[in-house]
Design brief:
This protein has a three-stranded antiparallel sheet. The chain starts with a helix and ends with a helix. The protein contains six helices and three strands, in the order αβααββααα. By secondary structure, the chain is α+β, with helices and mostly antiparallel strands.
Length: about 120
Amino acid sequence: MELTKSELEIMDVLWDAGCPMCRSDLLAASRDKRWKDSSVHILLNSLLAKEAIREAGLVKRGKTFGRLFQPTLTREQYYAGTIFSHRCKPRIVPLFEALLSRPDITQEELAQICALVAAHQR
């Protein structure tokens, strides 16, 4: 699944919130957005069609009800999927080597990664 820059902006707001949000909450939490408030419905419908988000209930705002939306995948799941969705897919071992050689990787994160690898070897 490939998301546009505007769709990713909405996803970032939803991922950062960690809870379902309605249209007005999304607009209030969206800073430095590239899209107009009036196009949020188009973006939300596009994200629904791509199954990046799902409806998560209704909330009453004033006299009307609005739909709540939440992501169907985590930020990490999305980016992991995009790495291999391009025509020129990276090889997995060099990719991991590049990720592990980043200076911002902590020893705690390395230990967690080693534990994940060990768990998948069984």
